[in-house]
Structures are given as C-alpha cells and as structure tokens.
Amino acid sequence: MKVSSGDFLKAYGRICEAALREPVSITSHGRERLVLLPADEYRRLKQNDRAALYPWELADRDLRALEISDAPSEAVAFDQEVASK
User: Fold this and answer.
1) What is the mean pLDDT of the chain?
2) What's the CA gap between 8 and 13, in Å, rounded?
3) Which among 30, 20, 24 has a CA at the least distance from the CA of 8?
4) Domains parsed from the chain with CATH numbers
5) Percent helix, strand, coil in the chain (nearest 5)?
C-alpha cells in the first residue's frame, strides 16, 4: 500500500491498521520516504543486521576459529570467484 504523507496524517488510524497486514509506503512529493510496518517485523529484520569488519578488527579467538574452520561442501560452487587467472 502506498499513501502520501498528507493522507497518512488524515487517516492515521486506518493506515496503521493496514500496516499491521502489509507494509505501507509513505510518500512525500511522489517519492517514497518511509515504510510503516509492525514492530514485530521491524525487530525480526533488525536481528538480521550485520556489521562488516576488517580482519584486524576481529578478536584473536575469532581469527583462530576462522583458521581452523572448514568451508561447507556447497562452497565449492564459488571457487571460480577466487581462482587465479
């Protein structure tokens, strides 16, 4: 569902109820600015946040764990991406 910011302000209750069923895009001047979704869905999405780190930012125990780990057998599908040319 997509609504303008003006319509959102006029029909806050109805649009909030709709957002419990599906994400609602709120637009301003025709451009999507916000997405309204249930708090449970937001928390679920936030659990998937990940931070990229440089190797030197890893703790020693994490580096050791990487050194002794084995890639899963499915990873062979990506070998061509690191193969020397």
Assistant:
1) 92
2) 9
3) 24
4) 1-70 (3.40.1620.10)
5) 50, 15, 30
pTM: 0.56
CB 24 within 8 A of CB 1: yes
Structural tokens at position 82: 């690191």
Q: pLDDT tens digits for 32-72?
A: 999 999 999 999 999 878 888 898 999 999 999 999 999 89
- Burial 12-25, CB ≥16 within 10 A → b, else e: eeebeeebeeeebe
pLDDT at 58: 92
Tokens, residue 18? 């709709």
In whole angstroms, give the CA distance from residue 20 to residue 82: 44
pLDDT score for 85: 59
